[in-house]
Each structure stands twice: as structure tokens, then as C-alpha cells.
Specification:
Layout: E1 2-8, H1 10-14, H2 18-28, E2 31-38, H3 42-48, H4 58-65, E3 70-77, H5 80-88, H6 101-105, E4 114-116, H7 120-130
Antiparallel strand pairs: 1-3, 1-4, 2-3
Bound molecules: adenosine-3',5'-cyclic-monophosphate (CMP).
Enzyme class: transferase
Main location: cytoplasm
Catalytic activity: dZDP + ATP = dZTP + ADP; a 2'-deoxyribonucleoside 5'-diphosphate + ATP = a 2'-deoxyribonucleoside 5'-triphosphate + ADP; a ribonucleoside 5'-diphosphate + ATP = a ribonucleoside 5'-triphosphate + ADP
């Protein structure tokens, strides 16, 4: 069983797409084990995007992700990391396959609605940045 970290970014929250996006993962059959609406501090944003430090889009990324509330989530299921990435689509909306979240709703790489962990190691690291273990709800379904 895998866990992954997903975060609807400020553009997704502001456009009223939380329900639409959450519904896609629910209908896929994944299990929501943690969720909260929150503002991201600069310190958290820097930890989360540490691997992008120094890249030309890094400062813009920090500014964007701290600009308004995000909807942070932890989802669980077999191959949750890969399945969620598949539903989200490629980073560049132009390359995202039809039917993916980014293809259906995003037009810009910087404002691409949602983040999804790209590996199990990063998923655990990112979950640790945004959630305490007590905030994750274990249940059988
Ligand atoms: P995300 O999955 O949150 O991870 C890093 C983010 O940086 C990415 O989504 C994009 O929003 C943003 N970004 C901007 N430009 C690029 C780029 N050239 N390559 C990758 N990510 C980029």
C-alpha cells in the first residue's frame, strides 16, 4: 500500500475546483486519509520545493504557492503515487494527455492546479512537511 501527497494549488482553490479534482481521485478508488485547507508558509514552501532551488522558476514557484490557500491531501492505495500522477497529467499543460486534470483545466506550467509526489520517497518526505501522523486517519474500507 502506498501513500502520496497531493496539493491543490492556489489557482485550483480560487477557481473553485477542489470538488472536481477530489472527485476524480475518489472515483478512481483511492482512499483519502488526510486533508486540510491551509496557507503555506515560506519556510514550508522552501522545504517542499528544495529540489528546484536555483532553477529559473524557483522564486516564482515560492511566490505562487504562498499566495493563497492550498488544499493539502494524503491519498492511499496500491500504486497511489503513479496513479495520481497519471490522473494529474504532465507538468506542461500542452503535453498533458486528454482527460487528465491539467489537460482539462490548466493552460500554463506555472499555474498547473495541483502537485503530486513523483516518488514514494518524496511522498513520505512531503507528507511529513504538511501533516503530522495524528492528522492522518486510518480506516478500513
Ligand atoms: P509541481 O508538480 O508543483 O512541481 C514543481 C513545479 O514547478 C511544477 O509543478 C510547476 O508548477 C513549476 N514549474 C514551472 N516551470 C517548470 C519547468 N520548466 N519544469 C518543471 N516545473 C516547472
Amino acid at each position: 500500500m502506498e501513500r502520496t501527497y497531493l496539493m491543490i494549488k492556489p489557482d485550483g482553490v480560487q477557481r473553485g475546483l477542489i470538488g472536481e479534482i477530489v472527485g476524480r481521485f475518489e472515483r478512481k478508488g483511492l482512499k483519502l486519509v488526510g486533508a486540510k485547507l491551509m496557507n503555506v508558509s515560506l519556510e514550508r514552501a522552501e522545504r517542499h520545493y528544495a529540489e528546484h532551488k536555483g532553477k529559473d522558476f524557483y522564486e516564482m514557484l515560492l511566490k505562487f504557492i504562498t499566495a493563497g490557500p492550498v488544499f493539502a491531501m494524503v491519498w492511499e492505495g496500491d500504486q497511489a503515487v503513479g496513479l495520481c500522477r497519471a490522473l494529474i497529467g504532465k507538468t506542461n499543460a500542452l503535453e498533458a494527455a486528454p482527460g487528465t486534470i491539467r489537460s482539462d483545466f490548466a493552460i500554463h506550467t506555472n499555474f498547473n492546479l495541483i502537485h503530486g509526489s513523483d516518488s514514494q520517497d518524496n511522498a513520505e518526505r512531503e507528507i511529513g512537511i504538511f501533516f503530522t501522523e495524528e492528522e492522518l486517519v486510518p480506516y478500513d474500507k
